[in-house]
Write a structure and sequence with these properties.
This protein is α+β, with helices and mostly antiparallel strands. It folds into six domains: about 1-45; about 50-135, Cadherins (Immunoglobulin-like); about 140-215, Immunoglobulin-like (Sandwich), CATH 2.60.40; about 235-375, no CATH class; about 375-515, Jelly Rolls (Sandwich), CATH 2.60.120.1250; about 515-600 and about 640-714, 3-Layer(aba) Sandwich (Collagenase (Catalytic Domain)). About 25% of the residues lie in helices and about 25% in strands. The strands form nine sheets. Strands 27-28-29-30-32-31 form a six-stranded mixed β-sheet. Helix 2 (about 235-245) packs antiparallel against helix 5, helix 7 (about 525-535) packs across helix 9 (about 575-595) and helix 9 (about 575-595) packs parallel to helix 12 (about 675-685). It is globular, with a radius of gyration of 35 Å.
Length: about 725
């Protein structure tokens, strides 16, 4: 509402007030005199109180004299208000604060409707029909604080109530009412079971919970048990860090352990526990190590030394230990510091919930990132990470998957880093035992997943939406060896072989994820079965084996997006047909044409060249080119001793996509004619022997392949 203040100089001002009444205004004029005026503002806003809602959100209460809800009223004049219930036989009264007080008997879930009048001291009033629904009074809930097992040192004090709480809908926090059954003798080593129970004023009992209290002679004894179990259950973060501090100086340098790096790891732990974590994240953290220096912590320290050096040093040591050694927890005392560091990562991993804002959730993000850096598959026991973000809906979804044991022979191509899909899947948290039964002298390696390490982009302005390192480090398996691996994430198992030899592996407790082998060609039946396996199962990652030289690894989200681009109305009814219509041109223009145009053999061995290649080469001799036919059929030109991998995942390492092995694509897989994809494939199909003129032909090769396919489509 507005009023006008007019002086002898005819000055005007606007007055805005949320309240009616008399106001005194003082204003200086140009001659430094004060103009004083009294203005009476007559409100345009309603003068009567406004009852904002006809539904009152009630509490679960059944005790007379207690508040069950409150009326929400707005009065623009701010006048004192009085309240009155206009109906008889209502089990409530209302006080001067607008709170409803229980005065009679009510039933859970029942609704009560009646009229309420609200008046101010100027006789303005409002009446409204109100409904109160009595909420259900649930039994109290007991929650264990910390692990189900708690370890304490002999002689230490212990308060059993410190590690539990009880909350009731009506009575609130009733932890003090908890009954504890069992006793703990902190002066005697042993295991002491405790059971907690509580009931509310309605005499409703909670579901009782139990935990085990372990009294140990020393922290070293507790840690040794944790190492044997490969679990920090019962140990606090503080105890783990204390143990590492005590044993840091016992380190001996080896090919796998660098003792001068342990201090950086311990510094990271201490800062995580104190909350001194990074709060700024450049986009290029992994591509330019120096960029860590541009990152600061909560306390203004350099985040490289306060945090990042520790997690990188830990991961580097784990990589070497995982590759060359057996189960890390079977290693000797010299690795105990690293074992404890892994177990701390396990504890952080249990509390990961995606997505995370790296600034607003800086502490949670930093602990989650540490958990990602501390992962190794070279251990026999490991819990599944429950929340897997964009990588999978939840590890719980795999609970009913049936596993199997298989024996399979894999052929090597002589390229050490040449990996191939095993055709099988390791479930989150489930052990897979791999045994080599061949006598070949070559090394074999296994790893879980084929994603680039930085597939989950987490630079500035991007939330952390999935684990950082979905692809594991490699584990080496020699002839006759048997190793057990586990993964908190699960994924496709890949096999790498160092030489032109074969290895035979027994794979125990593996699952069969969706996999499409094109073989003699794609058919509607193959497409239908493949689509059904994708939509019916929990798997987020699956394979397409196009030929002996080409493997595609999709995420479910990316594949479904590709179908949606092809058919915006795709659904379960049309999914099989859409899958066939997507895969058929992909097979022709991407799987087959580039290799055919390049004159490549399709088999692992050199074998016979295709007839169309030999015919072309013979024609060259007729043109008088000396020895050109012999050069044209050179096996080194027509054979690339390495499998090519494609990763189709939204968070491509370099944005939309990039060449290499794997070729990493975030958007191109929905282009089913394969134009852009064959462009990137062209970078890798040309052999060294044909990279002439300083590589310029190599550069042009990636333009020829996609354009040939494109003109073929036109």
């Amino acid at each position: 509402m507005a009023g006008t203040l007019t002086s002898d100089l005819e000055q005007k001002i606007n007055i805005t007030s949320g309240k009616a009444g008399n106001f005194i205004f003082i204003k200086a004029n140009r001659s430094n005199y004060l103009n004083i005026a009294e203005v009476k503002v007559y409100g345009i806003l309603p003068q009567q109180p406004i009852i904002k809602s006809s539904v009152v959100e009630s509490f679960a209460s059944f005790y007379k004299g207690e508040v069950v809800g409150k009326l929400d009223v707005l009065d623009h004049q701010g006048d004192p208000l009085t309240y009155e219930i206009l109906n008889n036989n209502v089990p409530f009264s209302i006080n001067d604060n607008g709170e409803f007080i229980l005065t009679g008997s009510v039933q859970e879930g029942e609704s009560y409707t009646f009229d309420v009048k609200v008046s101010d001291n100027h006789s303005h009033e409002s009446v409204k029909t109100i409904t109160i629904t009595i909420a259900h009074d649930n039994p109290p809930v007991i929650k264990l604080l910390g692990d189900k097992i708690v370890s304490i040192i002999k002689g230490a004090s212990f308060d059993a109530r410190k590690y539990v709480e009880a909350i009731d809908d009506v009575d609130g926090n009733i932890t003090s009412e908890i009954e504890i059954f069992g006793t703990v003798d902190t002066n005697s080593v042993g295991e002491y079971p405790l059971t907690y129970n509580v009931h509310d004023r309605k005499n409703q009992d909670a579901n009782p919970l139990s935990r085990e209290i372990r009294v140990v002679d020393s922290l070293d004894d507790a840690m040794q048990r944790a190492f044997n179990d490969e679990s920090a259950l019962g140990l606090s973060n503080k105890q783990l860090i204390e143990y590492m501090q005590n044993h840091k100086d016992n380190c001996r340098d080896t090919d796998y352990i660098k003792c001068n790096q342990l201090d950086s790891i311990l510094t990271t732990f201490k800062n995580l526990e104190s909350g001194n974590v990074p709060i700024h994240y450049p986009d290029d953290l992994d591509t330019e190590y120096g960029s860590y220096d541009r990152t600061t912590t909560v306390n203004g320290e350099n985040a490289k030394t306060a945090y990042y050096d520790g997690i990188r040093n830990l991961r580097d040591m784990l990589e070497k230990l995982s590759f060359y050694r057996s189960d890390i927890f079977d290693e000797g005392d010299n690795v105990n510091f690293i074992k404890a560091a892994i177990l701390l990562g396990d504890k952080y991993r249990e509390n990961i919930h995606y997505p995370m804002d790296k600034v607003k959730d800086a502490l949670a993000f930093s602990k989650a990132l540490y958990a990602d850096y501390s992962v190794t598959i070279n251990r026999t026991q490991q819990k599944a990470q429950r929340d897997l973000g964009h990588y999978a809906v939840s590890s719980d979804n795999f609970a009913n998957i049936t596993t199997t044991d298989v024996t399979k022979t894999y052929d090597g191509w002589g390229y050490y880093h040449d990996k191939q899909s095993s055709g099988y899947y390791i479930l989150p948290g489930e052990p897979v035992t791999i045994k080599r039964t061949d006598s070949s002298s070559t090394h074999a390696i296994v790893q879980v997943n084929m994603f680039r390490n930085n597939i989950s982009i987490w630079g500035e302005n991007k939330n952390y939406t999935m684990p950082r390192y979905i692809a594991s480090k490699s584990v080496r398996i020699d002839a006759g060896e048997e190793k057990t691996i586990t993964s908190p994430y699960g994924g496709v198992i890949f096999v790498g072989i160092r030489q032109d030899q074969s290895v035979t592996l027994e794979l125990h407790n593996v699952a069969q994820h969706p996999i499409l082998r094109f073989g003699d060609g794609i058919t509607y039946e193959k497409a239908r079965d493949f689509y059904k396996a994708i939509v019916d199962g929990p798997y987020t990652v699956f394979d397409m084996i196009a030929r002996s030289k080409l493997e595609l690894h999709y995420t479910r989200e990316q594949f479904m997006h590709a179908l949606k681009v092809l058919n915006p109305n795709t659904d379960e009814q049309s999914g099989a047909e859409d899958t066939y219509n997507y895969l058929k041109p992909l097979e022709e223009f991407f799987f087959n044409d580039p290799y055919k145009q390049s004159g490549f053999r399709d088999s692992v061995s050199f074998g016979e060249l295709p007839e169309y290649v030999k015919t072309f080469c013979k024609k060259l001799d007729s043109k008088g080119s000396e020895n050109i036919t012999q050069l044209c059929v050179d096996p080194q030109i027509h054979h690339r001793k390495q499998r090519q991998h494609f990763i189709a995942e939204w968070n491509a390492a370099c944005g939309t996509g990039c060449a290499g092995n794997p070729i990493d694509t975030g958007e191109w897989m929905d282009l089913n004619h394969g134009y852009v994809m064959s462009h990137e494939l062209g970078h890798t199909l040309q052999t060294e022997k044909t990279k002439i003129y300083g590589g310029s032909l190599y550069r042009g090769f990636n333009q020829y392949l996609p354009n040939e396919s494109y003109f073929k489509i036109l």
